[in-house]
Amino acid sequence: MKRRLLLAGAVLSLVSRPGAAGPRGGVDVLVIGAGIAGLAAAVSAREAGAGRVLVLEKGPMIGGHAAYADGSICAVYPKLQKKAGIEDSPALMARQLWEWGGRQGDLRLIETLARGSGSAIDWLQSMGVRFMPRVYVSYPGSYPRAITSHPDRGGFEYIWALNRRARALGVEVLLNARASALTSSGGRVTGVQVERSGRTETVAARSVVIATGGFSANKAMVRRFAPQGFDPDAGSSANPGGRHFDGADGDGIRMAQEAGAALSGMSEVELITRHGGRLLDYAGGDIYVNAEGRRFVNENAPHREQARAILAQPGQVIWVITDSKSLKGPVLQHKLAIGEVRQAASVEEMARAMKVPRRSLEETLSRYNGFVERGRDLDFGKTVFTQKIDTPPFYFGRETLEAHYTIGGIRINPQAAVLRANGTAIPGLWAAGETTGGVHGTSRQGGAAFTDCLVFGRIAGREAARAARRTP
């Protein structure tokens, strides 16, 4: 992970090639944030006819959290699904996402996401992204509609493709440029105050898109909204050791709220296992056990349910176990090298290394493998299985919870326009990606974050470009 962080940073800070001088004059569309939602919005704005498009990125490189993500994207994509005998539809996807989020998400936004998911894949492919011919149930998820271009660096490849397209279209990117406030006149957003090189300047814009990500790096905000028992000092999944730049501090949410925007779903902070024993980006190939060697949760339950179960374990000690048959990707060698994952030739050897009762672990694995044969988990209701866990070597490692994704944020409509509390849109302002709320309800399916960023990033850019053409 550390090596991948450094590589991504080195490459993405170079390929953006921002101008040394600040912007002169106004712009048609100004995008705040150079993650996947921001770059999608910028490219979409130019494709929709916007003249001058400027992206502000407060960090030293583009990409945001997407640059380090595995890359699962949930989509209704018959070109791959039908080859695997999978029937799907936007209506089915929308219903499942809505159910997964406790029926608390805005169904209009969810339906928009589902309808736009397949074309988002085609859009990335038009930029040179090549997806693997594999469809799987994302971790966690409910249906086989996840695809990726690479098992370990898909997010980096999406950012690379979007950045290349943005450069070809003449999108301007300004790094180390922090947007501190929105400017407005007569109730319409007219630009952004930018802090750069010790100076503050105002950049006028006909349309502004906020795509600054969530607030998982803001410990005060995480402490306010995360479940009781979680320690925000544990760090975020994008920056577990606190040694790297992480711009997800909620500043876009703050700026929008100051401009009169309403917020939605702020009470949900997604906690996940990532930087320990978990190796798989799909469901059904691993199990979680506690200090007694016993399962304690459906490993494919929504993150919210998993987090509560983990927080309830004595000492929050959990282990993730898989075997030689699972599809692990390049992350395996890295985790083995740094000791986050170990391997064992037998269950007895694994139990000894984990310091859990051997008999308990043997009984747990035997019982679980019986559930796999039946296709039904009698203990925790798991329904997605890809394999038994019975073939050495076994791979295992301790896991801890980290703040990964913040589900709440700026309230938007299906056109990605930012809304006031009374439901009216704030003229000149759009938002997309993790900075928004209302899309996922109380829990997000794995792979749906990229779909959210791509679909609503494209919509925000297109709508912002159309509005810019009508604005003096």
Q: Main attributes?
A:
eight-stranded mixed sheet; 33% helix; Flavocytochrome C3, Chain A, domain 1; 472 residues; elongated; 13 helices; FAD/NAD(P)-binding domain; disordered N terminus; four-stranded antiparallel sheet; 2 domains; alpha/beta
Structural account:
Residues 1-11 and 13-21 have low confidence and may be disordered. The chain is of the alpha/beta class and 472 residues long. It folds into 2 domains: 24-267 and 405-470, FAD/NAD(P)-binding domain, CATH 3.50.50.60; 280-399, Flavocytochrome C3, Chain A, domain 1 (Alpha-Beta Complex). The chain has helices spanning 2-15, 36-47, 78-81, 90-100, 107-126, 154-168, 219-225, 251-258, 303-311, 331-338, 347-354, 358-374, 448-470; strands at 27-32, 53-56, 73-74, 136-137, 144-147, 172-174, 178-185, 188-196, 199-210, 263-264, 269-273, 287-290, 318-322, 342-344, 394-399, 401-406, 409-411, 417-419, 425-431, 436-437. The strands form 5 sheets. Strands 1, 2, 6, 7, 8, 9, 18 and 19 form an 8-stranded mixed sheet that branches. A 4-stranded antiparallel sheet has the order 12-13-15-14. Strand 4 (136-137) and strand 5 (144-147) form a beta hairpin. The longest helix is centred in the last third of the chain and has 23 residues, at 448-470. Pfam families: FAD_binding_2 (PF00890). Residues 1-21 form the signal peptide. Belongs to the FAD-dependent oxidoreductase 2 family. FRD/SDH subfamily. Keywords: FAD, Flavoprotein, Oxidoreductase, Signal. Its cofactor is FAD.
